[in-house]
Amino acid sequence: MKKIALAGIGVMIITVITMGCNGNRLPPDPVEQDRPKIVELVTPSDSAFAVDIQTPITLQFSEPMDPKTFPQNFSLWIVPDSITTEGSFQADGNRITFTPKQHLETAREYDITLLGHAKDRHGNSISINPEFRKDWEFITGGTYSEGGFQKVLAIDPGASKIYPIDGLKSSEALTQFKSPTSIAFNASGNEFFVASNSADKVLRGYSLANPSAVLDSFEVGMLQAAMCRSGNYLYVLSLGSATINEIDLSNKTVQSIPLGAGVVSTSMASTTDRKVYTTDFVDGSVRIYDFSTGSASGKIGSVVPARTRIIGIATNPVDQKIYVLDYTTGEIKEIDGNQVSKTIALDAGTKPLDISIAEDGMAYVSTEKGKVYRVDVASGEIKDAYDFGDKMGGLAVTPKDELLYVVRSRLAQVVVMLPYSMRPVRKIQLSGTLQDVFIQPR
């Protein structure tokens, strides 16, 4: 009995000594619950928008960490370019802070990646799993967030509702507008005008801060089908009076030009030299009206097949060329002056609906089949596309090409995308059947 007991004790001693030689701390190699744990990303918060470009990255752990193990296990990089950011690490209690060597880029998506081999001060890694990684993301601020987010207005004409979106969150719907078809802001962005597909002949401008306050009223005719602005000139298409109306917002005057016999226009775009391009449903042409002379000045025939309802038409801010979407063929037609100068083909059968062009000349196109395209209209190259898989509505890009707002009609959503990566980053749930979205200018 004694001999057996001694043998057992010897085994126990040997086992204890052997165990004491393993692991990376005394007492021996920890069980998983004893390893350091990631508590949270302190700054910036995960998925944050409008992060200051001088913001350091701070991570909170369950215990003090060894900063020397982070350079090979931590990365901060720009999406989608995979450009890593250089910087230094400092430890403060249970926190590790990464300070970039240079300021971050504005209006860009950043990804933070932490691997499992980062260790605490005792040499214990976060995980023994070689595949372990933890990711966070955030978007830096830009002109879209200076002085607060640009306000966005989404319309549901059937329900006579306008939804204000401020700071990526929706507010209570505005219901005093009957059958809104289009919205335009003044140049300073503090007043918005609502075109109405109703018997009301008056176009009204409302305070963005207090939408119940009417600031301006102009008689332009009923059945206001479309609207756009160039500088201090606002243009309204009235089917009721069969006119294009130019409103001089500085002098508060209205000038009208008749559409012409048999012309049925549904959309339009304007240039800085006071020319307006409208689409004609009847024969598929594009009509040109010159308000510097006060007359119709031209017609570009057969831009699209006759009786094609063209929804999308936009002006390129870079060179003032006009781009028209052909719903039937799935093409973008470039108009330079009084002729079609280029055709850009999208995927067959996509049925493009709306187009918005940023100040850098990058265009975005929504389609009935669910794809949203990013197109360099100068070169004609399709840069990227994202497929939502269901019917889209209108879309609008912020002037500096920083955020893209896209309407998903059937789901009553406004989706916020990052143009550089064509990646959805927010879904704003509304109700009804949304048609289009409009962005406040800076």
Chain-wise SSE layout:
Layout: H1 2-20, E1 38-43, E2 48-51, E3 57-61, E4 74-79, E5 83-84, E6 87-92, E7 95-100, E8 109-115, E9 133-140, E10 152-156, E11 161-166, E12 169-170, E13 180-185, E14 191-196, E15 202-207, E16 214-219, E17 224-230, E18 233-238, E19 243-248, E20 253-258, E21 265-270, E22 275-280, E23 286-290, E24 295-300, E25 313-315, E26 322-326, E27 331-336, E28 339-345, E29 352-357, E30 362-367, E31 371-376, E32 381-387, E33 392-397, E34 404-408, E35 413-418, E36 423-429, E37 436-439
Parallel strand pairs: 2-9
Antiparallel strand pairs: 1-3, 3-7, 4-5, 4-8, 6-7, 8-9, 10-11, 10-37, 11-12, 13-14, 14-15, 15-16, 17-18, 18-19, 19-20, 21-22, 22-23, 23-24, 25-26, 26-27, 27-28, 29-30, 30-31, 31-32, 33-34, 34-35, 35-36
What can you tell me about this protein's structure?
By secondary structure, this protein is mainly β. The protein has three domains: 1-30; 36-141, Sandwich (Immunoglobulin-like); 144-439, Methylamine Dehydrogenase, Chain H, CATH 2.130.10. The protein contains one helix and 37 strands. A five-stranded mixed sheet has the order 2-9-8-4-5, with no helix packed on it. It has a four-stranded antiparallel sheet with strand order 1-3-7-6, with no helix packed on it. Strands 12-11-10-37 form a four-stranded antiparallel sheet, with no helix packed on it. The longest helix has 19 residues, at 2-20. The chain is elongated, with a radius of gyration of 30 Å. The protein starts with a helix and ends with a strand.
